[in-house]
Amino acid sequence: MISASPENVTVSPNATMTGLAAPSRGSSELSTWHVDMPAGSTGPEHSVSREQVWQLTAGSLEVTYDGRTEKVSAGQTLVLPPGVLRRIHAPERFEAYVAMRADGVASVPGTEGTRVLPWAR
Fold first, then answer.
1. Mean pLDDT across 86-93
2. Are 61 and 71 in contact (CB under 8 A)?
3. CATH number of 87's domain
4. Within a domain: 87
5. Compositional bias (Polar residues) at which positions (predicted)?
6. pTM, entire model
7. At 26, phi and psi to the nearest 5?
């Protein structure tokens, strides 16, 4: 059993991620987390090495990837393929649960190397 706890919360300038299942919390293959992004926020352009599945539970987001922008609303599921540059924008506050293989890392254009997702470890 995994419960949300303050030590598994990461606050960025654009969103709050609460880590749920992850290798550090007993999962061997998958990571899941909750995202809460306030209205008007936009995350950085980045890519992730693993597929991500986003289930929106409140509000809506706009995701720009692969040369197009899609709106995703509460009750819908977004599947983002690995290695594709994307940017998430919150035209209104949204909440989502995200699932990904536990070994995924992020890359940001113009920076060297990769970044681990601390909420997914």
1. 98
2. yes
3. 2.60.120.10
4. yes
5. 1-17
6. 0.94
7. 105, -10
